[in-house]
């Protein structure tokens, strides 16, 4: 068995060496390809933390985390969030300090909610008792067509690399043959390209016919870029 593995290793080394030698034997031109596209994330992840609390500081009137959690759940369902898109991320506890009684451990829970836009956010949060709302933030973005976007941009970047190689080859009176090497240097991680939400006022008519303001939220588009290194045969 050991002898077979040794033979396989030697054979693989020989084939790799031959492949490298064949590439080195070509006259070649190395270029870079580039493609970009501006897109707006259509998947937004919200992080919302809820906590237990006492009504008006009365230690006998504790509002349990399950009560505040139900408020969040009902409000999220009302704006169209799917049940499977609301999950618990983490569970914490904290000490509630009171001068008259020993400190008590209260619960806090962090939830992740997946939404398609932010326009129902204020409506959802209005349904939660503010005393039980600890924090809210946007934890991440994504796109439902990410794989298709990657394919589109990589294809365009490879074509751009070939086009650049053709320009260089033509300048020397040559032409381009097959591609010998392609290196993909692109990054499509939406988590590292997090745009910030922007807020603006929209004019609306209230029931009395007058003008009122409502807060709308929108996500700023981000620019996806793709970089390709290509080595082409030079004829």
UniProtKB/TrEMBL annotation:
InterPro entries: 26kDa_periplasmic_antigen, SIMPL/DUF541. It comes from the Bacteria. The lineage of its organism: Bacteria, Pseudomonadati, Bacteroidota, Sphingobacteriia, Sphingobacteriales. Pfam families: SIMPL (PF04402). This is SIMPL domain-containing protein. Keywords: Signal. Residues 1-19 form the signal peptide.
